[in-house]
Amino acid sequence: MGTRNTIRTAVRDVVPPAGLTRALAVQATVYAIGHGLFQAGSAVFFTRALGLSPTQVGLGLSLAAGVSLLGTVPLGALTDRYGARRIWLVGLLAEAALFGAYPFVGSFAGFLAVVVALAAVDATAGVARHVYSINVLPSDQRVTALAYQRSALNVGFGLGAVISGVVLAVDTMAAYRGMVWFNAAMMLVTAVFVRRLPRIPEATRPAEKTSRLAVLSDRPFMAVSLLSGLLSSHGTLYLVVLPLWVLSHTDAPRILIAALVLLNTILAVLLQVRVSRGADTTPGAGRALRTGGLLIALFCLVLPISTLTGGVATIVVLVIAAVVLTLAELVQSAGMWGLTSTLPPATHRGAYVGAFRLGGQLQYLAAPAGLTALGVGTGGWGWLPMAAMFAVAALAAMPLVGWAARRPRLGEPAPEPEPAAAAAAAATTPAAAPVS
């Protein structure tokens, strides 16, 4: 009986309940199959099918990342103006058209035009998708639904990567073009799913117009965004720094790197929903950020041990470090979803979600070089200051989240004072002189 209950619980943590939560997870899977296929084979497509040099590819992707960084807040504000579902749907159709045009690109300038446009569209649609998931669900279901979507995305990316193996094995121009067009088709199928999702009433817009960048003046919220962005560097640590460490400072076999990536995917699918429980309130989300940061700090202390071991012991240490870092990723992600569900005001949720993503995008620009130099380039001692940095960030999470929760958001009135505080203020205020 106990085993049966355990299996039932495990299934509930992977298979979303029927209804809107499942519909959102299904579209995430479909989207990720196409996107995962393209991501796994994109480098070969760019160089073989389009004839670009690695330098040209790198330059184009960097420019696209810059556009995504600069445009995330003003593009996110489009969701507030036109509605999350509509912007999400238009974004998917635009992505399908741009991916469909990729095989016809005949120059570096054409590649730049498509990759930059895709970055802008993807940033806009990503905010709209996130905002729709928040707006359409009750507050106590939002984080769980986003966790199911994250789990579904991992399943889809894994299936897409498997399909890419077939494309790479065939290794023909037709196969590479078919890979890109398959991704475009998956965007269209996803658009059909989104078209069938229920419409939701949009929040009433405030009477006064505000700048699309006004959210950047919300200092408490932006401080939380930057902190969450720093903690989201678990992705860089796992996909960039950890493999480089394995190759340069341990005696572990290279195949272990692929095994650790697979382990991360499996754990994310099995545990994301479970570890997200409790993060659907602002204090709970703050605690999740704190836990995620402390787990990253622990990873930074465990990983260097692998340079002192050999053989099976090294593999054990690396697996333990990978599990700790994966748990950090899952918990930090839940905290991020909780904060974007509870802090932004309904009338400016798109701008706020876009602003919250700024921290993560800044991390993508700085973390690969900085964390690699500190962790791998120093030979090992750099892990200690890195652990201290993440520990300090973790301990700052609750105070910063509390600060943001106490301050009014854009377009909201200042919170009413507590009754005791109001009484004390009245007692210290001089009485007005009687009128004679």
Task: Explain what the structure shows.
The chain has 15 helices and no strands. The chain is 77% helix and 0% strand. The chain is globular and about 60 Å long. It has two domains: 16-197, Growth Hormone, Chain: A; 217-408, Growth Hormone, Chain: A, CATH 1.20.1250.20. The protein has 436 residues and is mainly α. The protein has helices at residues 2-14, 20-49, 54-82, 84-101, 108-136, 142-170, 173-196, 219-231, 234-249, 255-275, 282-302, 312-342, 349-375, 383-406, 419-428. Residues 415-436 have low confidence and may be disordered.
Helix and strand arrangement:
Layout lengths: L1 H13 L5 H30 L4 H29 L1 H18 L6 H29 L5 H29 L2 H24 L22 H13 L2 H16 L5 H21 L6 H21 L9 H31 L6 H27 L7 H24 L12 H10 L8
Brief write-up:
The protein has 436 residues and is an all-alpha fold. Helix content is 77%, strand content 0%.
Give structural attributes:
436 residues; Growth Hormone, Chain: A; disordered C terminus; single chain; 2 domains; mainly alpha
Oligomer: single chain
Task: State the major sheet.
Answer: none
Quickly count the domains: 2
CATH architecture of the largest domain: Up-down Bundle
Structural class, by secondary structure, is mainly alpha
Number of beta-strand segments: 0
Chain-averaged pLDDT: 86
Tell me the Rg in angstroms: 24 Å
Distance between the termini: 85 Å
Total helices: the number is 15
Q: Looking at this structure, what is the CATH superfamily of the largest domain?
A: MFS general substrate transporter like domains
What is the 3D shape?
Answer: globular
Sheet-strand content, in percent, reads under 5%
Quick one: CATH class of the largest domain?
Answer: Mainly Alpha
Output the helix-strand order. HHHHHHHHHHHHHHH
Residue runs with pLDDT of under 50 for 5 or more positions? 415-436
In helices, the fraction of residues equals: over 70%
Under CATH, the topology of the largest domain is which? Growth Hormone, Chain: A
